[in-house]
């Protein structure tokens, strides 16, 4: 029986990539801990956000809106809509991973940008499960540990605004987003979203511009769909 000599290296590559993503992103939890403390949240509140919410962009959006003086409900709504994307990841990962029913509720908590990216990049179910598990475990442990360290060390840093750590969250989010802007449609959605935020920021309460920017996706997709249908050979006149 012929064996596949590429299987062990493939597993090694998956482990390496998963650990790389988990460590790189997990360490940014320190910035969240400091930013959250600077926004006025207590140690327990900050740690609870990382333990229970565990989606970095939504966490940064929430504390950022609160730090800017936004209404808590508006801030929570903005964070919620940013987190909705994970539900769509879950639909794709559910079919790919086919995990036992007993572990699905726990696995759902780890369905985020990074675990989805690593899992979906794998060639088969076994390596997808491996990548998802290692990325999720590494990221969850490090993110929560560094969140705790950041929240505890915020007072020692003094004025957190002077360190510019409030920019760490958006910087990490942009770093994760940039590789996804591979096509014209994705770039158009991102560009329109930025434009909407810039236009709404001076006139709307903190957190609301993020909600308005969400309209960029359906707007661009609608225009793109009409343009695509209009160029189909069967519909030319």
Defining key terms:
mainly alpha, 237 residues, 14 helices
Task: Tell me what the structure shows.
- By secondary structure, the chain is mainly alpha-helical.
- The protein is globular.
- The protein is built from 14 helices and no strands.
- The longest helix has 33 residues, at 125-157.
- It starts with 6 loop residues before the first helix and ends in a 7-residue tail after the last helix.
- Residues 5-9 have low confidence and may be disordered.
- The chain is 74% helix and 0% strand.
Brief write-up:
This is AzlC family ABC transporter permease. The protein has 237 residues and is an all-alpha fold.
What composes the largest sheet? none
Pick out the low-confidence regions.
5-9
Could you estimate the helical fraction of the residues in percent?
over 70%
Mean pLDDT, nearest integer?
Answer: 82
Alpha carbon gyration radius: 20 Å
Q: Work out the number of β strands.
A: 0
Cα end-to-end separation: 59 Å
Tally of contiguous helical segments: 14
Structural class: mainly alpha
What fraction strand? under 5%
What is the N-to-C succession of helices and strands? HHHHHHHHHHHHHH
The shape, in one word, is globular
Family: Belongs to the AzlC family.
Subcellular location: Cell membrane
Main location: membrane
Keywords: Cell membrane, Membrane, Transmembrane, Transmembrane helix, Transport
